[in-house]
Amino acid sequence: MKTTGRRFWMNCFLVGILLLAVAAVGWAQGGAFRVAMQPPVQNDPALISSDSEVAIANAAYDYLVDVGPDNAIELRLAESVDISDDGLTYSFVLADNVHFHDGSPLVPGDVVWTFDRLRNPDNGFPTASLYSNIRSIEVTGSDTVAFHLTETNPFFLYDLSDNHALITKRGTTDFTTFNGTGPFVVTEYRPDDRILMKANDAYFIEGLPGLDELQFIFFTDSVAAVAALRGGQIDMAWRMPVSLYVSLQGEQGINTVDVPTNGFDLIRLRTDQAPGDNPLVIQALKHATDREAIFQLVQLGAGSIGRDTPIGPLYDEFFDASIEPLAYDPAQARSLLARAGYPDGLSIDLYAPDTGDRPVLAVVLKEQWAQVGVDVNVIIEPESIYFGENHWMDATLGITNWGSRPYPQFYLDVMLACDASWNEARFCDDAFDTLVAVAGTTLDDAARVFVYSQIQEVLVADGPIIIPYFWPQVAAYNNSFAGLELKAFAGRTDFRNIFAR
Q: Where in the chain is the domain with CATH 3.10.105.10?
């Protein structure tokens, strides 16, 4: 009787666990596409940073202009754009019949309010420096708006497609309602569990979206997400370690897709405090880093090897293949550390988010740098914690995943210029800033190519960053759905075109 009773209660317990799992994950319903996602922290489009936050916002809101899978500019809320002959004025005509989810119509004033908010330095948003070149924005008609620049910017349309540049209703203060013009309307949001969306029946593009429902189910572990995909509890897993992705290839009922990107994992050392305030230390770490070994161990040979500059091979003519990174040379690394005042090596904490291949990269770095006397204490944090409240900016030594952008100037302006909003290394060099300014303003393509080459030389020799590889973007999804076009920046993947077979 005791054995039977134990089995009975054990069966009850297991059934209860199954019911809880079903409630937590949800089963597929007609036209519902369920995506595994890290839980978001920020809801305000001006503050989003992680792929999950960007993906949710991209589904609920719209951009004025977007970037397609081929990195080309695509119009979204803008029906047309006209650029003045001097390159200083961009005039947009807005699409017809666009409404926010609360029923109010989109008007040019919403566009003006959105970008004025993003560019106002008093708000403290990371886009303030990105949009500091905007002299003014004005409503020029019932459906038109114009941006006036202080100096030319050949990448301005790309700047308007920045992750944060989602058009919000003027005067909005509560962003937990997700009141956008986007293809999906939020019906339920449980911050620790999921966000549920339904198709926007009043969406301004006829025939879109192709799904009845879009569900982002929050997972903090990519292994668990892949197991849920295999078990049919979700329909898509992405942003996973390459090894997990490879294990899904050829599996029945699952499609796998990968695209080349300029996304990279960045190892950076703060230059405003010890030990990074001595440039010999970062040079030592560069010589202590075996990029080929990292590429094979961490990336399994997928993607491309990095050269300590964010201007990667995806940028074609802007990428200078003749500039090689500092050679792997442990003896030279030990010598440089000694000259920097660390003859017996040094100990340092290395922070990294728990997503993708970052934890593996951190362990490989720990092993490689130990050979030159650098004792690394690896601290892995949930991505939501690592990037929450700008915690990632505070670490002395950290690994940051930078998503692929369609043009290289973004990284220079936002990550490496002296006044860059996300200058996590606290790098500042006036001569370097001059090069960045020229590259970002000249309309002479040949001059820009030349300056980008100089920038790469500076970063390889003296920059406080190590970029060991550029990763491919990978995803796996249930083959009962079609229409997925994975983007290089995962969070910008367009779910409007997905449909159930």
A: 264-470
φ, ψ of residue 312 in degrees (nearest 5)? -95, 180
Kind of pairing between the strands at 469-470 and 304-305: antiparallel
* pLDDT tens-digit readout, 465-498: 999 999 999 999 999 999 999 998 899 999 999 9
What's the pLDDT tens digit per position in 436-463?
999 999 989 999 999 999 999 999 999 9
Sole residue written with tokens 């369920």: 34
Question: Global pTM?
Answer: 0.78
Distance from C-alpha of 38 to C-alpha of 242, rounded to nearest angstrom: 17
Q: Which CATH architecture has domain 264-470?
A: Roll (3.10)
Parallel/antiparallel/unpaired status of strands 397-402 and 264-269: antiparallel
The tokens describing 315, both together, are 């940028």
CB–CB of 311/409 below 8 Å?
A: no
Q: Pairing mode, if any, of strands 473-478 and 469-470?
A: unpaired
What residues form DSSP beta bridges with 138?
146
Q: Look at residue 116 and give its three-state secondary structure.
A: helix
Q: What are phi and psi of 228, to 5 degrees?
A: -70, -35
